User: Which sequence fits this backbone?
């Protein structure tokens, strides 16, 4: 062990656990209003008479932020003083959404802020809605990272999230004639009050060049370098008891300006290096599956991984520990393979800068590293062309070669194969634990992608079923329901979600169930009002709100949903005097800009919406609504209003899903396949409170072996055949044959088995129609869903990672 660790704050504070008392006392709304006015003038330089709503929003945020800083420092001090193990969560994506409400609620300031703003003539809710979403992620994986940060802080586990401060987050989606159009997102267009720039925390990151070997010692001479600069965002836990840090890196040139070029009069050329360096943190790759194999992506991955590792090693060394004890103090989690270069980078730093042998460096790196797999889709497994990898990262290439030679001799594992570096296999061999994200997914990981590696390392793969933060996804997003819950069982459920089981006692009580129904109804009215103001849409709040929200992908089968919608519309036309159960079909989600089939599916949904919503025969029973630009903030409005949750992926393809958890927690019933975490949700809420349909993962495998299964399924289903005929005849495209790609896909191969699952899905939906007509029984099932979903808190997930992977402890 090295010398006693020192606290970087020196001796100014009185003892390590001193908490300034007044800090955690809530201010009066008058004092808070004073603080807001002070910020408006002193921090923003605005006269209250001329302040815009944005100014007020910023001033309020700053007054809230003031109350984060001290608990943040206290958490850091406590970590140093208690020599706590730190968790480092490396992720290319953090899909955060807004922070303003999150921080305000966690600090218990909501009522005070609301009153203070009212006294200043401003509406709190309106101001909150002005904050742009931090959309530094594509979908599930990035949102999971944000939920994990929330839970790490709530549990008081010392942790840092590390990622990239993209200038442009996920693109904005617009529809033009039903077609998705993308435009650049600009979340930093207004001042971001939640981040603190740390110009002193900067690292030079190298690319390319060559390696000199002097005996056993390697010296890498990069051809180019850029600077990584840190920006810190505090992550506030429940009740502000603990605050961790999200550290995001932006890229800068290491020389600002080519003065020589400037002096020659080449003013544009003089700033070229700057523009080039900055591209590394310019934009998030908008793809949530395809491995594009682009050099910029590889550079982004190395850029943030290297900066993060060097930063955590600097922190570790500042405490005076011996390098051999690294794994006692540091746990590094890789969110998929995107940061998998952490393995070779850590080995490089340990060997080249700390003098460890290759073997010792490998062992130490492996003891620190854990790897989470989020997908079985072959196209999403990262592989880099060997030549590109070697050109950009010559030293790392040699390390991966060395590893390859070792593991291939030991057990035949090929890290480099067919001219490609396989990042999944690399992450696997360099991690002491590899986890899947639901029980089914973890089993499939063992049988499929890592079949051989699992046999070579049988104890390595474990499961950690995903979870969601109850703070954002129930307490904050659904005040109507959370108010009822708190009235009924007290407020401890917010940080201990399994307490929701206590609700079950109250479900037979008609009063409780009526209030539960009233909360749902209020949320539906609220959503309808919001969509009316936003898009002019008119939703009937008495209809069933049937919601499918997620990235658009063939395996998630939005197509199955819209085909069923058309079939239902047909049945309504065939029997217009029948007593139909009114439905609003809501879709939300973005397609990757290069994913043509996903974009056609969007166009089809919009085509059906245009037809159905203007049909006087069915208008009162069926609506199709697809609001543009689905994001975290929209999810917070849609989820509390859902009656039915669509989780209908081809079995074996959805690793877990987390939207499924959010919807069920908020009292929606699920129609779903046995896929991902649906399996565990159904176990928890009870099979009788879940609408199951479709082929199982094993049956999917078998079905694909049958010749011409799609054609056979279509021929066997007159209902489906009619729907496909209508699409071909242009019923949803003003008479032209626009959807040939979709129809050709369905008839010819239908890889995701929409056609064989169609009839089962349709029948299940008709059962749902029937059941919805008994509102008491429906609400009883909905309330049972809420009361039995407590296990899916990300607090439970994080406690599992801390115990089984990180060996990290709460310092609360
Ligand atoms: C890889 C290479 C090049 C470009 C992009 C990518 C890339 C980017 C993002 C590959 C995959 C992703 C994201 C995957 C993802 O979101 N997976 C989801 O993870 C959730 C959290 O575990 C699960 O609930 C979902 O089931 C899973 O689809």
Assistant:
């Amino acid at each position: 062990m090295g010398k006693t660790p020192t606290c970087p704050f020196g001796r100014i504070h009185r003892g390590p656990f001193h908490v300034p008392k007044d800090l955690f006392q809530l201010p009066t709304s008058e004092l808070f209003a004073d603080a807001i006015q002070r910020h408006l003038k002193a921090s923003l330089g605005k006269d209250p008479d001329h302040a815009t709503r944005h100014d007020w929003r910023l001033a309020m945020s700053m007054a809230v932020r003031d109350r984060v800083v001290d608990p943040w420092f206290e958490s850091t001090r406590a970590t140093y003083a208690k020599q706590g193990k730190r968790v480092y969560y490396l992720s290319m994506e953090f899909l955060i959404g807004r922070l303003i409400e999150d921080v305000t609620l966690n600090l218990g300031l909501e009522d005070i802020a609301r009153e203070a703003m009212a006294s200043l003539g401003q509406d709190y809710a309106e101001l909150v809605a002005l904050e742009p979403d931090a959309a530094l992620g594509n979908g599930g994986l990035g949102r999971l990272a944000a939920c994990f940060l929330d839970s790490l802080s709530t549990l008081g586990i010392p942790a840092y999230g590390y990622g990239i401060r993209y200038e442009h987050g996920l693109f904005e989606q617009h529809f033009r004639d039903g077609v998705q159009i993308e435009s650049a997102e600009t979340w930093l267009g207004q001042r971001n009050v939640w981040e603190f720039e740390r110009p002193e925390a900067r690292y030079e990151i190298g690319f390319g060049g060559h390696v000199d070997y002097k005996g056993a010692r390697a010296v890498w001479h990069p051809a180019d370098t850029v600077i990584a600069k840190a920006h810190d965002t505090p992550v506030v836990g429940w009740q502000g008891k603990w605050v961790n840090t999200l550290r995001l890196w932006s890229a800068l040139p290491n020389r600002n300006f080519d003065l020589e070029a400037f002096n020659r009069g080449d003013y544009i050329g003089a700033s070229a290096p700057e523009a080039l360096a900055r591209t590394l943190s310019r934009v998030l790759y908008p793809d949530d599956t395809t491995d594009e194999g682009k050099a910029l992506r590889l550079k982004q991955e190395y850029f943030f991984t290297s900066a993060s590792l060097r930063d955590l090693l600097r922190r570790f060394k500042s405490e005076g520990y011996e390098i051999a004890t690294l794994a006692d103090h540091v746990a590094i989690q890789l969110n998929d393979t995107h940061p998998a270069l952490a393995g070779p980078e850590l080995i490089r730093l340990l060997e080249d800068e700390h003098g460890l042998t290759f073997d010792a460096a490998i062992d130490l790196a492996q003891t620190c590293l854990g790897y989470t797999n989020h997908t079985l889709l072959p196209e999403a497994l990262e592989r880099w062309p060997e030549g590109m990898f070697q050109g950009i990262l010559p030293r790392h290439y040699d390390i991966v070669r060395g590893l390859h030679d070792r593991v291939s001799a030991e057990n035949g594992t090929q890290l480099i194969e067919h001219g490609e570096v396989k990042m999944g296999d690399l992450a696997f061999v360099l991690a002491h634990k590899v986890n899947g994200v639901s029980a089914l997914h973890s089993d499939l990981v063992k049988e499929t992608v890592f079949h051989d590696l699992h046999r070579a390392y049988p104890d390595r793969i474990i499961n950690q079923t995903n979870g969601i933060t109850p703070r954002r996804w129930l307490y904050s997003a659904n005040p109507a329901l959370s108010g009822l819950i708190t009235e009924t069982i007290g407020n401890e459920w917010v940080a201990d979600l399994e307490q929701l089981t206590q609700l079950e006692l109250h479900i037979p009580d008609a009063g409780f169930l009526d209030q539960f129904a009233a909360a749902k109804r209020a949320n539906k009215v609220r959503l309808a009002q919001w969509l009316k103001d936003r898009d002019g849409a008119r939703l009937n709040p008495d209809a069933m709100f049937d919601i499918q929200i997620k990235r658009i992908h063939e395996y998630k089968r939005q197509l199955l949903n819209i085909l069923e919608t058309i079939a239902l519309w047909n049945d309504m036309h065939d029997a217009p005097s029948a007593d139909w159960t009114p439905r609003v079909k809501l879709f939300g989600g973005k397609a990757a800009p290069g994913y043509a089939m996903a974009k056609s599916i969007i166009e089809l949904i919009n085509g059906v919406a245009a037809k159905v919503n203007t049909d006087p025969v069915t208008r009162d029973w069926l609506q199709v609504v697809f609001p543009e630009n689905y994001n975290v903030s929209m999810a917070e409005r849609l989820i509390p209003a859902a009656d039915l949750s669509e989780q209908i992926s081809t079995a074996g393809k959805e690793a877990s899903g987390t939207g499924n958890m959010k919807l069920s927690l908020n009292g929606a019933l699920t129609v779903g396949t046995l896929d991902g975490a649906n399996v565990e949700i159904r176990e928890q809420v009870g099979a009788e409170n879940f609408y199951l349909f479709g082929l199982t993962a094993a049956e999917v495998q078998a079905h694909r072996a049958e010749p011409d299964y799609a054609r056979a399924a279509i021929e066997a289903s007159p209902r489906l055949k009619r729907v496909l005929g209508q699409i071909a005849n242009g019923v949803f495209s003003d008479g032209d044959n626009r959807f040939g790609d979709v129809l050709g896909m369905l008839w010819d191969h239908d890889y995701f088995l929409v056609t064989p699952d169609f009839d089962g899905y349709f029948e299940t939906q008709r059962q749902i129609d029937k059941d919805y007509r008994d509102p008491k029984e429906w609400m009883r099932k909905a309330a049972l869903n809420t009361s039995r979903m407590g296990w899916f808190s990300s607090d439970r997930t994080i406690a599992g990672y801390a115990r089984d992977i990180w060996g990290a402890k709460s310092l609360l």
About this structure: Residues 203 and 228 are 5 Å apart (CA to CA). The radius of gyration is 27 Å. DSSP finds 33 helices and 24 strands in the chain.
